[in-house]
Write a structure and sequence with these properties.
alpha/beta, 6-stranded parallel beta sheet, Rossmann fold, 245 residues, 20% strand, 10 strands, two-stranded parallel sheet
Amino acid sequence: MLDLKLPKKNGLFITGTDTGVGKSLITGGIAAVLRRQGLKVGVFKPIASGCRHDREGLVSDDTEFLAMCADADYPLTVITPVTYKTPAAPVTCAQIEGHSVDYEAIATAYKYLCENCDVVLVEGIGGALVPITETETILDLAVAFDLSVVIVARPNLGTINHSLLTIEAVRNAGLPVAGLVINGYNAQTADVPEETSPDVICDFSDTTLLSIVPYDENSSVEEGRLGESVVQSLQTCDWKTFSKL
């Protein structure tokens, strides 16, 4: 168990059933909703891989997107204090690049956000069980934050198994599941699995379906665009309540 001695704060931890399911898009969308409600939102992606070099050092597209959605007035290095160039799990990145995850930097940045923001949204990297070190996973990091967990899942065939496994892992770690967000649903092309899987997942696991977010061609994390349809679909959920405000 990680003992980071982190402060208690109103917030949410956003994880996914896999990489590429849209965690950053959903985290940014939630940030935009809360910001429109008059809150100062801290966005936090403590570890990012696959970063690029620019004038500020290693920068993640996800980090820049979150900063834009939250209208952040704090540095990108606060949003993401640990960065790697290699597009891989942190444990692999650390081995290749020669530096392990700096937990002290994570704790310092998180404390800053807690002191300066009304609510903090923490986004994981990859899925819940992605290894950070040889002995710790993203889920161990989530336990240290002690926040309710939002699980982002894809809509298509196979999502039932991935979602149920993720929900079970989060609960076995002692964390509450705030609910499930299905991301990238396309009503025009949806087949039977896509139409029925959200209810199957939630009924089988006794989990709340928070939102079904449509596929939105106007949204792109890499290009820094958040489409209005994403925000509108997330506005139907009371994120203040789930973040314990």
